[in-house]
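Notebook p. 47: complex prediction with 2'-O-acetyl adenosine-5-diphosphoribose.
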Amino acid sequence: MKNTQGILIPEEIRQRVLNAKRVVALTGAGISAESGVPTFRGADGLWQNYRAEELATLHAFRKDPELVWKWYDWRRGIIGKAQPNPGHEALVRMEAFYPRFTLITQNVDGLHRKAGSRNVIEIHGNLWRVRCTEEQKTFYLEDVPLREIPPRCACGALVRPDVVWFGESLDPELMNRARQALVSCDLLLIIGTSGVVQPVAGFPAVARQAGAMLIEINPAQTPLSPLCDFTLNGKSGELLRELIPHAVY
Ligand code: OAD
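Predicted complex, structure tokens below:
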């Protein structure tokens, strides 16, 4: 039976999903779209109005920390009001259902943890956490709006969002954890990512090489689609619930 998006999930796919044991979900901005959080690319994408190079780089921050923090304050305002949607919730239930389940997210919005997911690798960081530019210590700063822009550490130095900016390396420990999950999974779900930002865009190939089945959920085709066994071209909220009703409801 087709769902409200006119999508039919073949029985064979349902069975293979049901029988998987070691599952990884890789998420991107699309999973939070149904919570009202703008994605980065596409018609309503964040980068349509703001140039990434002006805002999400260390160079931009050094040049104009106030501008960069104003942009983050604006995003934190939107995300602070957002609630997890059925897609986030389905992943929480999957974690309880499968013997091994790892969630790798590129999102910095914290909505997976807010929904209740526990084994989450926030590979691009978290926009509620900040890092002192002098002492390098990290702490959570959750005021919305921020009380001072740009915010400072108790030591007086500027703090920056504890997120990965363009041109920066990802945390090697998180990369290692992600890699271990990818090489040992039998099912990889790729949800709501345009699959164009490295090194994460290379993760599906790692799982594929290790023999995992790949299922993508995205209303659009992506560069990752040809690599997948199956692509569900629709929104993740409804489709994740349908893909795993045994786990979810
Ligand atoms: P993008 O904005 O590049 O892609 C979002 C994807 O979600 C697109 O492929 C959409 O088609 C899809 N999408 C939209 N609505 C959806 C829905 N309801 N259900 C499922 N999918 C939907 O976001 P990311 O791929 O996450 O990096 O971007 C990757 C990285 O680029 C981000 O983590 C960020 C950005 O620069 C950093 O901040 C380091």
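Notes: Residues 28-30, 33-34, 39-42, 45, 56, 106, 124, 163-164, 192-194, 197, 217-220, 222, 235-236 surround 2'-O-acetyl adenosine-5-diphosphoribose (CB under 6 Å). The CA atoms of residues 69 and 148 lie 10 Å apart.
Next step: compare against the earlier run before touching the bench.
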